[in-house]
Specification:
CATH topology of the largest domain: Jelly Rolls
CATH class of the largest domain: Mainly Beta
Structural class: mainly beta
Order of helices and strands: HEEEEEEEEEEEEEEE
CATH architecture of the largest domain: Sandwich
Strand content: 35-45%
Largest sheet: 7 strands, antiparallel
Helix content: under 10%
Number of strands: 15
Shape: globular
Length: 267
């Protein structure tokens, strides 16, 4: 009995000592910031455009680039709305000492150098009745659509192998590039075109293959830049070629994808 009591005393002594505390809460460093919101007064502009970066987490630093380069800790710090007088591809990220940096937010802003809103335009086949906007003229009205394609009247939606767009300009225009503004929303079966060819007077003057058309990505607004033979033109034919079918990684694999177009620009 004399040996048992001291043994129990020692056990109780160690049991009463503080044990290491276990934190059942995840460190803030394991959380990633949401991406900042990019708000622009006009994605297509004649003279200038203003872009604001919105984020509501205190002590967050927003950084951005305007030349399409990836955002890093060395990128420009956002302090006030960004004023632009030329086309730009803006990327922005949020940084905070207690959290992982956000993913990039991206928006492309385009300066309109040639007004083709008075051109005659024909589109074949006709867009789907549910996504016909204001007709073919919607492609030259200098009005940009948003990611919310079901709202508004900006997007023309097609489910066709080839979309033919014929432009007859009201005057000759000098151009070296053609831009086609499209939407990517793969969850809604809307994919980037496979490739684009451009003709003038029955002669091909430019083409562009989109090598990432089948790559899995999130929602995106994109301007597809197609270099063309530099010259003056009074008419153009733009052929937008769809992917043959939705790729194998998608739940709708084998089906025909949609193509959404909202604007054509000449530069």
């Amino acid at each position: 009995m004399k040996l048992i009591v001291p043994y129990l005393f020692v056990c109780l002594l160690f049991a009463c000592q503080d044990s290491p505390k276990t934190n059942n809460f995840a460190s803030t460093e394991t959380f990633q910031l949401a991406s900042p919101i990019l708000e622009v007064d006009s994605a297509l502009f004649k003279n200038s455009a203003t872009v604001a970066l919105l984020f509501n987490v205190p002590n967050t630093v927003l950084r951005y680039t305007t030349d399409g380069k990836e955002v890093s800790m060395d990128s420009e710090v956002y302090k006030k709305p960004i004023s632009l007088k030329k086309s730009a591809l803006i990327k922005a990220k949020a940084f905070h000492i207690d959290y992982w940096p956000s993913d990039e937010s991206v928006i492309q802003i385009a300066k309109i150098k040639n007004n083709i809103s008075h051109a005659e335009i024909k589109v074949s086949p006709s867009p789907h009745p549910n996504y016909s906007a204001m007709g073919p003229e919607s492609l030259i009205d200098m009005q940009k659509g948003s990611l919310q394609f079901r709202k508004g009247d900006k997007w023309l939606g097609f489910q066709s192998d080839i979309i033919t767009i014929d432009l007859k300009l009201d005057k000759e225009i000098s151009a070296s590039k053609v831009y086609i503004s499209t939407l990517i929303d793969q969850g809604s079966w809307i994919f980037s075109p496979d490739y684009i060819t451009i003709y003038a007077n029955n002669k091909q003057i430019g083409s562009k293959y989109l090598k990432d058309s089948e790559t899995q990505i999130g929602q995106k607004l994109q301007y597809i830049e197609v270099p063309v033979t530099e010259s003056t033109y009074n008419q153009l034919r733009v052929l937008v070629h769809s992917l043959e079918k939705i790729p194998s990684w998608h739940q709708a694999t084998g089906m025909q994808p949609w193509i959404f177009i909202d604007e054509i620009l000449l530069e």
